[in-house]
Each structure stands twice: as C-alpha cells, then as structure tokens.
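Pasting as-is:
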Amino acid sequence: MTDSLLNVLLGLVASAISAALGWLAQNLRRRRRLERVRSFFGLPAGGECLIVVNRSVGVGAHARTVTRRDAYALMELAALVKECGAQTELVAHDAVHRGLGAKTEFCFGGPSSNERMAAHLAWGLPGVTVTSGSDGPANVIMAGDRSFTVDWDNEVFALLARLPTPEGGRPVFLISGQTGVANHAGVRYLVANHRRLARRYGEDGTFAVVLRVVNPEAYGPDVVELAADVTARARERTASTAPAG
C-alpha cells in the first residue's frame, strides 16, 4: 500500500471518527435538554398528564364547548407533551374528581369558567383573586396589593403558575387569562420559555407570574411581556382567605 493511499484511508477513518463523536455529543446534549424539560414539567417518557379544559362562557354556548383560542392552546400543550414522550388525557373542568400529584396537570381558563382552576387558586395561590365581573370588578387579576385590569384597546393579562404537589408528586401548571387570547398567550409563553423559567426558579420550583399580552386585537397571542413576578404575594394567605381560628 502506497503512502498516499494510506494517508487517504487514515483521513477517512479520522473523519468518520470525528463525525461519530460529533453526532454522539450532539445526541447527548439533546437528550440532556430533553431530560431537563421532562423534569421541569414532570413528564417522564411514557408518563401521563391531565389537560383540564374550561368551558366557553359565550351566550348560548354548550357546557362542553371551548373557544377557538382555547382549542389552539390545547394543541400547543399537546405538542409539548408529545415532545416529552408522554400521553395526554383531556378532561373537562367539572369531571376531574381526583387528587393531586399522580399526574402532571395543565389547567387553564379563569375560575368562572373552570371549577378546577378555582380550587387550585384557593389551595395553592390564596393571595390571588381572579374576577370575571359576576363576583367583583370585571376582568381583574389581583395578587396582594397589585391589580391587573383589562384594557381592551391595549393589553390583557394572564396568570401563569407552577405549583408543587404533596409528597413530591407531579406539578400543577395554571394558565388563567382574562380572555381566550390571553389563555393562548400564557400557554405559548410557557412552551417557549420553560428553560428560562427552570433556570430562574429551579426544575422543581414554584412560581406565579403575570404576563402582559400587548394589543391582542392586532398581535394576537404573539407579543407577550413579563408584567410582574407575584410569587410571594400569591402564596400569602390573607386575612380574608385564612381559615377561621
């Protein structure tokens, strides 16, 4: 074998080894990123999660219908769950009837259209009040002494939260928007920024933030800003929410 042919063969072997090592390193990085995502969402491969659906509050709407925007949000959540290799169980808000922690739960919609959301807020975020107009000022998210009110021409808001469950169970994610567009924006923000949220609060941390959806009539759910971190206020049990005695 001539020296030139040997050099060619050695070059090919070195290139193959480099390509294999590069592929392996890239695959390991991708797997580590995926495992971090699974850890943050509590979605191991082959696991299951609940997506708890609110009802449409439109005049004459059937109790089992959802708005078009909420349907879009459902699809984006389902895609996230599929990416983690888990399975989705879609459940109506008034048909869950189960405890916490056995499965990761995504619950979205305001408490006026989602009984499960109302229960989660009272249990996990007692310092937060979300009113729809029938039980207080129309479309206001209140956390402690801060309030976020709809401005139909300029902005709407959504509460996004991650809550731990007893005994280290699977987490609960809350997305409570003031409108269907705000619900969709909250889901989209969670899907796009879960790595940032995990870095800031930990892969098994607790947080509650309010998102500002800018000019939803013009931009839909695409232009979203972090309006406030209300984690401390939201976790506080106020005098009005504390149990008697």
